[in-house]
Amino acid sequence: MLPLLELLSDGTDHEIKALTAQLADRFGLTEEERNTRVPSGQQTTIHNRVSWARSYLKYADLCESPSRGRVRITKQGLEVLREKPQAITTKFLARFPSFSELKNRPKAKAAVEGKAIVPPRIDDARTPHELIDESYQSLREKTAIDLLERLRTCSPAFFERIVVDLLMRMGYGGVAGQGMVTGKAGDGGIDGVIKQDKLGLDVVCIQAKRWEGVVGRPTIQGFVGSMESMGSNKGVMLTTSSFSKDAVEYAGRILKKVVLVDGEELADLMIDHNLGITITKTYELKEVSNDFFDEGED
Protein backbone atom coordinates (compact mmCIF):
# COMPACT_ATOMS: atom_id res chain seq x y z
CA MET A 1 0.00 0.00 0.00
CA LEU A 2 2.89 2.38 0.70
CA PRO A 3 4.30 2.22 -2.86
CA LEU A 4 0.85 3.06 -4.23
CA LEU A 5 0.43 6.01 -1.90
CA GLU A 6 3.91 7.25 -2.80
CA LEU A 7 2.99 7.27 -6.50
CA LEU A 8 0.05 9.52 -5.62
CA SER A 9 2.22 11.99 -3.68
CA ASP A 10 2.13 14.63 -6.44
CA GLY A 11 -1.53 15.31 -5.59
CA THR A 12 -2.81 14.88 -9.16
CA ASP A 13 -5.35 12.41 -10.51
CA HIS A 14 -3.93 9.08 -11.68
CA GLU A 15 -5.40 6.28 -13.76
CA ILE A 16 -5.44 2.93 -11.99
CA LYS A 17 -4.23 1.22 -15.15
CA ALA A 18 -1.18 3.49 -15.33
CA LEU A 19 -0.48 3.06 -11.62
CA THR A 20 -0.59 -0.70 -11.98
CA ALA A 21 2.00 -0.57 -14.76
CA GLN A 22 4.23 1.75 -12.70
CA LEU A 23 4.03 -0.53 -9.67
CA ALA A 24 4.86 -3.55 -11.83
CA ASP A 25 7.97 -1.66 -13.04
CA ARG A 26 8.87 -0.66 -9.49
CA PHE A 27 8.73 -4.26 -8.28
CA GLY A 28 10.66 -5.46 -11.33
CA LEU A 29 7.98 -7.91 -12.42
CA THR A 30 8.70 -10.01 -15.48
CA GLU A 31 6.23 -10.20 -18.35
CA GLU A 32 5.11 -13.59 -17.12
CA GLU A 33 4.54 -12.25 -13.59
CA ARG A 34 2.57 -9.28 -14.95
CA ASN A 35 0.27 -11.65 -16.84
CA THR A 36 -0.19 -14.12 -13.99
CA ARG A 37 -3.86 -14.32 -13.05
CA VAL A 38 -5.65 -15.12 -9.83
CA PRO A 39 -7.02 -18.71 -9.78
CA SER A 40 -10.44 -17.56 -10.96
CA GLY A 41 -8.78 -16.16 -14.10
CA GLN A 42 -10.86 -13.00 -14.00
CA GLN A 43 -7.96 -10.55 -13.63
CA THR A 44 -4.21 -10.39 -13.25
CA THR A 45 -2.74 -10.78 -9.78
CA ILE A 46 -1.03 -7.39 -9.89
CA HIS A 47 -4.27 -5.65 -10.91
CA ASN A 48 -6.17 -7.44 -8.15
CA ARG A 49 -3.66 -6.39 -5.50
CA VAL A 50 -3.51 -2.77 -6.64
CA SER A 51 -7.30 -2.61 -6.66
CA TRP A 52 -7.55 -3.85 -3.08
CA ALA A 53 -4.69 -1.62 -1.91
CA ARG A 54 -6.58 1.36 -3.29
CA SER A 55 -9.75 0.22 -1.53
CA TYR A 56 -8.01 -0.08 1.83
CA LEU A 57 -6.41 3.33 1.44
CA LYS A 58 -9.82 4.78 0.55
CA TYR A 59 -11.39 3.20 3.63
CA ALA A 60 -8.76 5.01 5.72
CA ASP A 61 -9.37 8.30 3.81
CA LEU A 62 -5.82 8.35 2.54
CA CYS A 63 -6.94 8.55 -1.07
CA GLU A 64 -10.14 9.16 -3.01
CA SER A 65 -11.68 8.47 -6.42
CA PRO A 66 -12.53 11.70 -8.23
CA SER A 67 -13.95 9.74 -11.18
CA ARG A 68 -14.21 6.19 -12.46
CA GLY A 69 -10.87 4.47 -12.81
CA ARG A 70 -8.94 7.36 -11.30
CA VAL A 71 -7.51 8.01 -7.85
CA ARG A 72 -5.72 10.81 -6.01
CA ILE A 73 -4.20 11.31 -2.59
CA THR A 74 -6.04 13.16 0.20
CA LYS A 75 -4.70 15.65 2.72
CA GLN A 76 -4.60 12.85 5.28
CA GLY A 77 -2.65 10.71 2.86
CA LEU A 78 -0.04 13.43 2.39
CA GLU A 79 0.29 13.74 6.15
CA VAL A 80 0.98 10.02 6.40
CA LEU A 81 3.75 10.26 3.80
CA ARG A 82 5.38 13.07 5.78
CA GLU A 83 5.75 10.60 8.64
CA LYS A 84 7.95 8.50 6.35
CA PRO A 85 6.46 5.13 7.42
CA GLN A 86 8.42 1.97 6.67
CA ALA A 87 5.24 0.25 5.48
CA ILE A 88 1.47 0.67 5.47
CA THR A 89 -0.33 -2.40 6.76
CA THR A 90 -3.88 -3.02 7.92
CA LYS A 91 -2.58 -2.67 11.46
CA PHE A 92 -1.21 0.76 10.53
CA LEU A 93 -4.55 1.75 8.96
CA ALA A 94 -6.41 0.74 12.11
CA ARG A 95 -5.24 4.00 13.69
CA PHE A 96 -7.68 5.87 11.45
CA PRO A 97 -11.26 5.90 12.82
CA SER A 98 -12.79 5.64 9.35
CA PHE A 99 -10.95 2.36 8.74
CA SER A 100 -11.36 0.69 12.14
CA GLU A 101 -15.00 1.78 12.39
CA LEU A 102 -15.88 0.31 9.02
CA LYS A 103 -14.01 -2.90 9.80
CA ASN A 104 -16.02 -3.48 12.96
CA ARG A 105 -19.38 -1.99 12.02
CA PRO A 106 -22.26 -4.50 11.65
CA LYS A 107 -23.38 -4.94 8.07
CA ALA A 108 -26.97 -3.83 8.67
CA LYS A 109 -25.97 -0.58 10.36
CA ALA A 110 -23.49 0.23 7.62
CA ALA A 111 -26.12 -0.33 4.96
CA VAL A 112 -28.59 2.02 6.68
CA GLU A 113 -25.97 4.74 6.99
CA GLY A 114 -24.92 4.32 3.38
CA LYS A 115 -21.34 3.54 4.36
CA ALA A 116 -18.85 1.26 2.62
CA ILE A 117 -18.03 -2.07 4.24
CA VAL A 118 -14.52 -3.41 4.58
CA PRO A 119 -14.40 -7.14 3.86
CA PRO A 120 -14.63 -9.02 7.18
CA ARG A 121 -11.29 -10.73 6.77
CA ILE A 122 -8.27 -8.62 5.93
CA ASP A 123 -4.79 -9.92 5.29
CA ASP A 124 -1.71 -7.85 4.48
CA ALA A 125 -0.16 -10.57 2.33
CA ARG A 126 -3.23 -11.59 0.33
CA THR A 127 -6.29 -9.85 -1.05
CA PRO A 128 -9.83 -11.08 -0.23
CA HIS A 129 -10.05 -12.60 -3.72
CA GLU A 130 -6.81 -14.49 -3.12
CA LEU A 131 -8.04 -15.71 0.26
CA ILE A 132 -11.21 -17.03 -1.33
CA ASP A 133 -9.26 -18.68 -4.14
CA GLU A 134 -6.81 -20.26 -1.69
CA SER A 135 -9.65 -21.59 0.47
CA TYR A 136 -11.34 -22.99 -2.64
CA GLN A 137 -8.13 -24.69 -3.75
CA SER A 138 -7.61 -26.20 -0.28
CA LEU A 139 -11.14 -27.61 -0.26
CA ARG A 140 -10.70 -28.94 -3.79
CA GLU A 141 -7.41 -30.64 -2.89
CA LYS A 142 -9.02 -32.32 0.12
CA THR A 143 -11.94 -33.47 -2.04
CA ALA A 144 -9.48 -34.91 -4.58
CA ILE A 145 -7.64 -36.82 -1.85
CA ASP A 146 -10.89 -38.21 -0.42
CA LEU A 147 -12.09 -39.11 -3.90
CA LEU A 148 -8.90 -40.99 -4.71
CA GLU A 149 -9.13 -42.94 -1.45
CA ARG A 150 -12.67 -44.03 -2.32
CA LEU A 151 -11.60 -45.04 -5.83
CA ARG A 152 -8.85 -47.23 -4.42
CA THR A 153 -11.30 -49.13 -2.21
CA CYS A 154 -14.13 -49.69 -4.71
CA SER A 155 -14.42 -52.94 -6.64
CA PRO A 156 -12.57 -53.29 -9.98
CA ALA A 157 -15.89 -53.66 -11.84
CA PHE A 158 -17.29 -50.47 -10.27
CA PHE A 159 -14.07 -48.61 -11.05
CA GLU A 160 -14.34 -49.64 -14.69
CA ARG A 161 -17.87 -48.23 -14.87
CA ILE A 162 -16.65 -44.99 -13.30
CA VAL A 163 -13.93 -44.39 -15.90
CA VAL A 164 -16.28 -45.14 -18.79
CA ASP A 165 -18.86 -42.72 -17.35
CA LEU A 166 -16.15 -40.09 -16.90
CA LEU A 167 -14.96 -40.28 -20.49
CA MET A 168 -18.53 -40.09 -21.74
CA ARG A 169 -19.10 -36.97 -19.63
CA MET A 170 -15.95 -35.50 -21.10
CA GLY A 171 -17.52 -35.79 -24.55
CA TYR A 172 -15.56 -38.73 -25.94
CA GLY A 173 -18.76 -40.45 -27.02
CA GLY A 174 -19.87 -37.46 -29.07
CA VAL A 175 -23.57 -37.05 -29.79
CA ALA A 176 -24.27 -40.46 -31.27
CA GLY A 177 -21.60 -42.53 -29.52
CA GLN A 178 -21.92 -44.99 -26.68
CA GLY A 179 -19.71 -46.32 -23.91
CA MET A 180 -19.66 -49.75 -22.34
CA VAL A 181 -17.69 -51.85 -19.87
CA THR A 182 -16.25 -54.93 -21.54
CA GLY A 183 -13.52 -56.24 -19.28
CA LYS A 184 -13.50 -58.94 -16.67
CA ALA A 185 -11.49 -58.86 -13.46
CA GLY A 186 -7.94 -60.07 -14.05
CA ASP A 187 -8.22 -60.52 -17.82
CA GLY A 188 -5.48 -57.96 -18.56
CA GLY A 189 -7.30 -56.79 -21.67
CA ILE A 190 -9.68 -54.01 -22.59
CA ASP A 191 -11.91 -52.90 -19.70
CA GLY A 192 -14.20 -50.68 -21.72
CA VAL A 193 -14.78 -49.12 -25.11
CA ILE A 194 -16.37 -45.97 -26.37
CA LYS A 195 -17.82 -46.03 -29.86
CA GLN A 196 -17.75 -42.48 -31.13
CA ASP A 197 -20.18 -43.16 -33.95
CA LYS A 198 -23.19 -45.47 -34.39
CA LEU A 199 -21.34 -47.91 -36.64
CA GLY A 200 -18.35 -48.20 -34.33
CA LEU A 201 -15.87 -47.04 -36.97
CA ASP A 202 -14.06 -44.87 -34.40
CA VAL A 203 -13.39 -46.78 -31.17
CA VAL A 204 -11.58 -45.63 -28.04
CA CYS A 205 -10.26 -48.47 -25.88
CA ILE A 206 -10.10 -48.07 -22.11
CA GLN A 207 -8.07 -49.82 -19.47
CA ALA A 208 -8.68 -49.05 -15.78
CA LYS A 209 -6.00 -49.90 -13.24
CA ARG A 210 -7.17 -49.66 -9.63
CA TRP A 211 -3.62 -50.05 -8.40
CA GLU A 212 -1.43 -48.91 -5.53
CA GLY A 213 1.87 -49.53 -7.30
CA VAL A 214 3.38 -47.69 -10.25
CA VAL A 215 2.16 -48.72 -13.71
CA GLY A 216 5.16 -49.64 -15.85
CA ARG A 217 5.94 -49.92 -19.55
CA PRO A 218 5.04 -53.65 -19.90
CA THR A 219 1.47 -52.86 -18.84
CA ILE A 220 1.22 -50.14 -21.49
CA GLN A 221 2.62 -52.52 -24.11
CA GLY A 222 0.04 -55.13 -23.18
CA PHE A 223 -2.72 -52.53 -23.50
CA VAL A 224 -1.48 -51.51 -26.96
CA GLY A 225 -1.52 -55.16 -28.03
CA SER A 226 -5.13 -55.47 -26.86
CA MET A 227 -6.00 -52.36 -28.87
CA GLU A 228 -4.70 -54.12 -31.98
CA SER A 229 -7.26 -56.91 -31.52
CA MET A 230 -10.01 -54.25 -31.33
CA GLY A 231 -8.77 -52.51 -34.46
CA SER A 232 -8.42 -49.29 -32.49
CA ASN A 233 -5.79 -46.56 -32.76
CA LYS A 234 -6.99 -44.64 -29.69
CA GLY A 235 -6.71 -45.67 -26.08
CA VAL A 236 -6.94 -44.26 -22.58
CA MET A 237 -5.38 -45.89 -19.54
CA LEU A 238 -6.51 -44.56 -16.18
CA THR A 239 -5.04 -45.54 -12.83
CA THR A 240 -5.46 -44.66 -9.18
CA SER A 241 -1.66 -44.66 -8.83
CA SER A 242 0.97 -43.29 -11.23
CA PHE A 243 3.00 -44.19 -14.32
CA SER A 244 6.71 -44.84 -14.51
CA LYS A 245 8.89 -42.50 -16.56
CA ASP A 246 9.59 -45.35 -18.98
CA ALA A 247 5.86 -45.94 -19.45
CA VAL A 248 5.19 -42.27 -20.19
CA GLU A 249 8.05 -42.10 -22.69
CA TYR A 250 6.88 -45.26 -24.43
CA ALA A 251 3.31 -43.99 -24.77
CA GLY A 252 4.67 -40.82 -26.33
CA ARG A 253 6.72 -42.66 -28.96
CA ILE A 254 4.27 -45.17 -30.40
CA LEU A 255 2.10 -44.49 -33.43
CA LYS A 256 -1.12 -45.29 -31.64
CA LYS A 257 -2.56 -42.47 -29.55
CA VAL A 258 -2.53 -43.61 -25.93
CA VAL A 259 -3.42 -41.13 -23.19
CA LEU A 260 -2.27 -41.87 -19.65
CA VAL A 261 -4.30 -40.51 -16.73
CA ASP A 262 -2.79 -40.93 -13.26
CA GLY A 263 -4.62 -40.83 -9.93
CA GLU A 264 -4.27 -37.10 -9.31
CA GLU A 265 -5.49 -36.17 -12.78
CA LEU A 266 -8.30 -38.72 -12.54
CA ALA A 267 -9.59 -37.13 -9.31
CA ASP A 268 -9.35 -33.64 -10.82
CA LEU A 269 -11.28 -34.72 -13.92
CA MET A 270 -14.02 -36.26 -11.79
CA ILE A 271 -14.33 -33.01 -9.83
CA ASP A 272 -14.37 -30.90 -13.01
CA HIS A 273 -17.12 -33.05 -14.52
CA ASN A 274 -19.12 -33.54 -11.29
CA LEU A 275 -18.78 -37.30 -11.18
CA GLY A 276 -18.84 -38.92 -7.75
CA ILE A 277 -19.14 -35.60 -5.93
CA THR A 278 -21.92 -33.46 -4.51
CA ILE A 279 -22.06 -29.67 -4.79
CA THR A 280 -22.72 -28.53 -1.23
CA LYS A 281 -22.66 -24.77 -1.69
CA THR A 282 -22.34 -22.26 -4.51
CA TYR A 283 -21.11 -18.68 -4.16
CA GLU A 284 -21.46 -15.79 -6.59
CA LEU A 285 -18.78 -13.12 -6.31
CA LYS A 286 -20.24 -9.78 -7.26
CA GLU A 287 -18.82 -6.31 -7.71
CA VAL A 288 -20.13 -2.99 -8.93
CA SER A 289 -20.62 -2.74 -12.70
CA ASN A 290 -18.92 0.33 -14.12
CA ASP A 291 -20.89 -0.07 -17.36
CA PHE A 292 -24.18 0.19 -15.45
CA PHE A 293 -23.21 3.54 -13.96
CA ASP A 294 -21.70 4.95 -17.14
CA GLU A 295 -24.30 7.59 -17.97
CA GLY A 296 -22.54 8.60 -21.18
CA GLU A 297 -24.10 10.82 -23.79
CA ASP A 298 -27.81 10.65 -24.65
* Large-scale geometry: elongated
C-alpha end-to-end distance: 39 Å
How are the strands ordered across the major sheet?
Answer: 4-5-6-7-8
Q: What portion of residues is helical? A: 40-55%
Mean pLDDT: 83
Number of helices: 13
Instruction: Describe the largest sheet.
Output: 5 strands, mixed
Which H/E pattern describes the elements?
A: HEHHHEEHHHHHHEEEHEHEH
Low-confidence stretches: 106-121
The portion of residues forming beta strands comes to 5-15%
C-alpha-based Rg, rounded: 28 Å
Number of strands: 8
Coarse structural class: alpha/beta
Overview of the structural elements:
The protein is α/β, with parallel strands linked by helices. About 45% of the residues lie in helices and about 10% in strands. The chain contains 13 helices and 8 strands. The strands form 2 sheets. It has a 5-stranded mixed beta sheet, with helices on both faces. A 3-stranded antiparallel beta sheet has the order 1-3-2. Helix 11 links the parallel strand 6 and strand 7. About 5% of the residues have low confidence.
Quick tags:
11% strand; 5-stranded mixed beta sheet; single chain; alpha/beta; elongated; 8 strands; 298 residues
